[in-house]
Every structure is written in structure tokens, then in C-alpha cells.
Design brief:
The chain is of the alpha/beta class. It contains 12 helices and 9 strands. Helix content is 54%, strand content 16%.
Length: 301
């Protein structure tokens, strides 16, 4: 059953990349919305988990408001996939026209300093499109890390897709990936990491919307070890076809404290920037898994 399921999953993603990119853009948008509404109406585990997560982000929301947010959230999530399936065939000049990033001068100045830059993002809107914007509009290739997916052929699809957009993709394989990222930063390069969920033993515990969660230590550790600039970035969709975003000010390395204390303080600052962006646009946060520690403990019990 496992191999058959893997072949089915890989086949479905392959169909998406092969089929959706051939659709006219309005048809792809309409298809994504129909799929999102169908999944939302079924009230499966992912939708219920999304609502549970949104209830922490918008604690004053009642059941009806949460259902509205989760429906908008599923539409945003499917918009991400429809856009991603079409990105490899999109003219590169559109990456500049379709993306509007506030305070991008912060990123440009950090890159010009030669220190290297670590960009940390949450699962907001379309981080792949933001990466394509960086390579095409700012003219800087970057390195990222991808979680190994099953089946292996699906992981290979994701790597090929992101490399076609100008990204260097490393498999999430512990110290080897960290060492390569550090070398890229020491040479003044750009590293982009999705960093709002970490279930590994090396994750840092942070306060996130009033409860404990665990986020990756990697961005803070890389900044400490290499002297790179650490910049949180948040994204969102607006009322237009554009992707919007904001580059937040640098998270500095604390002057005093142990390595763990510095890492914890920096990761908390990143989490606070994420929380601000998510609170402003909760419907664009694609967190369909358990995140907070008490939710994880509940599942274990």
C-alpha cells in the first residue's frame, strides 16, 4: 500500500505541474478556488486543524468567524499551489510586476554590506514566488533547504521546480546542510529559510500568540556563526493578483549571554515579527499541522 500511495501522490503532483500550467490564468484561479471550497466543506482534519490554529491567532473570533477565516485560508492555500504549478512558465519580468515588497531597501543594503543575509519566513502566502522575485528583480540567487519528501520522486520534482526558479536547494540533512549554508553566507550570499515550525529536538521554544511553540534555531545560529544579517520577512495576498510583503529590520545578535541565550532571544524576535504579519493576515497563514507544544502533547496522549 505504501508504494502504491507514493506513486499516486507523485502522479497527482505531476499532473498538477503538467496540467495547471497549460490552463489560462483565470481558469487556474477558478479551479483552485473550487478545489479549496470542496476541501473546506468536507471539514477534514487539515481544515479543523487550521481553524484550531487560527483560534489562537484571532482569539476573539467566534465559530462563524473561524469558519470564514478557514475558508479564506484554504482558498489562499490553493492559490499558492496554483501559482506554484505555473511559476516555471511565467515570464521573469512578471516576478517584479506581480510582487510588491515593502522596505526592500533593507535587503538590498544588507546584501551590499557583504556580510551575507539570512531571510526567515513563515508559511505565509507564496514564499516560492517571493524567492523568484528575489532572483529576478534583485538579481541575487539564493540557497534554501527542503524537507525530504516521500516518495523520493516527489522530492526530486520539488527540487527541480525550485532550481528552475534560480534557487539552490539543499536536502534537510542536518550538519551537512548547515555547513553549506554557512559557506554561502561567508561568501556574502543569500539564504532563505521557512522557519515557523520545528518539531526536532534542536528547535527553540518561543512564546507564540501567548503559548509555547518550537521554531528552528538555524537562522539565529547561522547569523551568530557567520556574522550574517538576519531578516524576518512576512508576506500576504491583497485584493489584487499581486503578492505583497514586508522586510522587517535586522534581528541583531545580543551582545551578552550564552550561545543558547542568544539563540533563544533571536528566535523569539523572529517569532514576534512572524506573529505581527500573521495577525494582520491570518487567512494567508498556511499552517494545517499542529504547531503549539500543548497540541503536540495532546496528540501524544
Amino acid at each position: 500500500m505504501g508504494k502504491a500511495r507514493d506513486r499516486l501522490v507523485d502522479g497527482l503532483y505531476g499532473l498538477g505541474w503538467a496540467g495547471v500550467k497549460k490552463l489560462p490564468e483565470p481558469a487556474a484561479v477558478a479551479l483552485g478556488r473550487r478545489i479549496a471550497d470542496y476541501v473546506w466543506k468536507r471539514r477534514g482534519r487539515s481544515v479543523l486543524r487550521l481553524e484550531s490554529n487560527l483560534a489562537r491567532v484571532v482569539p476573539e473570533a467566534g465559530p462563524e468567524r473561524l469558519r470564514e477565516l478557514s475558508r479564506a485560508g484554504m482558498r489562499s492555500y490553493m492559490r499558492y499551489w496554483m501559482e506554484s504549478f505555473r511559476l516555471p512558465t511565467m515570464p521573469k519580468e512578471r516576478f517584479g510586476a506581480d510582487v510588491e515588497i515593502k522596505d526592500d531597501h533593507i535587503l538590498r543594503e544588507a546584501l551590499a554590506s557583504g556580510r551575507g543575509v539570512v531571510v526567515a519566513l513563515p508559511h505565509l502566502a507564496n514564499w516560492d514566488l517571493a524567492g523568484a522575485w528575489a532572483t529576478a528583480h534583485i538579481g541575487v540567487p539564493f540557497t534554501t533547504v527542503a524537507e525530504r519528501l516521500k516518495p523520493e520522486t516527489l522530492f526530486d520534482r520539488f527540487v527541480a521546480y525550485r532550481e528552475s526558479l534560480g534557487m539552490e536547494v539543499l536536502p534537510h540533512s542536518g550538519g551537512a546542510a548547515f555547513g553549506t549554508l554557512a559557506r554561502r553566507l561567508r561568501s556574502g550570499g543569500l539564504v532563505c529559510l521557512v522557519a515557523d515550525r520545528d518539531l526536532s529536538a534542536s528547535g527553540v521554544e518561543v512564546d507564540f500568540f501567548g503559548s509555547a511553540a518550537r521554531m528552528p534555531a538555524g537562522p539565529a545560529l547561522l547569523a551568530q556563526q557567520t556574522g550574517a544579517v538576519l531578516l524576518p520577512v512576512t508576506l500576504y495576498y491583497g485584493d489584487t493578483p499581486k503578492l505583497y510583503g514586508r522586510i522587517h529590520p535586522e534581528v541583531p545578535v545580543p551582545a551578552t549571554g550564552t550561545r543558547l541565550e542568544k539563540t533563544t532571544a533571536m528566535t523569539q524576535a523572529v517569532a514576534d515579527a512572524f506573529a505581527g504579519g500573521i495577525a494582520e493576515h491570518p487567512e494567508d497563514w498556511h499552517m494545517l499541522q499542529r504547531l503549539w507544544l500543548d497540541d503536540l502533547e495532546e496528540r501524544a496522549l
